[in-house]
Amino acid sequence: MTTLPNSRESRAARLTGHLPRLARTATMVAALTVAATQLAGCFPVIAAGMAGGVTMATDRRPTATQTIDRGLQLEAENTLNSRYNGQARVSVSVFNRKVLLTGEAKDSTVKQQIEQYVKGLPNAREVVDELEIVSSPSFVTQSQDTFITSKVKTMLVTADGVPSNSIKIVTEKGVVYLLGVVTPPEGERATDVARNASGVVKVVKAFDYVTEAEAARLDAAATGRTTPPDATSGTPAPVQTAPSQTAPAAPNAAAGATASPVTSPVTSPVALPPGRNLP
Q1: Which residues are in the BON domain (predicted)?
Q2: Which of 6, 85, 154, 223 is the most buried (most CB within 10 A)?
């Protein structure tokens, strides 16, 4: 007599046969999900790289000077962070081999030591020391400063007559520092834009001024332009010029403008410190 399988056993056998196929399907879905996530994560990196290339192309500094600036910043920050850990919080910003020091030091002795060290670096042609002396330096990153820097940058990009890619913005406790290679009128326009950004306490100018003819020559050597989004403005903030050792007036300078000892971007003849791998 032939024994027929009951319906319950038959269904169980069919389900068992489908399990490998279901497992493969689930595995494929999981793999596709991971791949999509990884590709999505790669996009900001690729986009950032493309944006970096555009910035390099439109910067008035020679490519070699941009490379020196990055190496100088890395060298100074790495040394200061290890040497004065717990005694100071120092942010190093470099543009056209001009070094801006912002942050906090526990006393005047530490502040002076930091400044002297940076002045002794071969590729630093000028140091602007804006370190604040406080008894207990704060090592908490201020997200508000980052937001202000981003907002001012966006406003400069959309402003008429401002070479935004030739201007570096640094914010410390609401004080905005402007470095860059500009003509006196461009510097005044950039300063006016920055001081009208909401949240800005004060604007400090640390520009390198060039003539209109020199600016035109530098711009002619650059390629590529970008059109960024809009930004909002706020109550105008006071303006201050960063102290400098010597500051002869630039040709055709606007009233009140202060020029740097070097009036155009230069490429340092000094090689970068050995053993440093630039990004």
Answers
A1: 68-135, 144-214
A2: 154
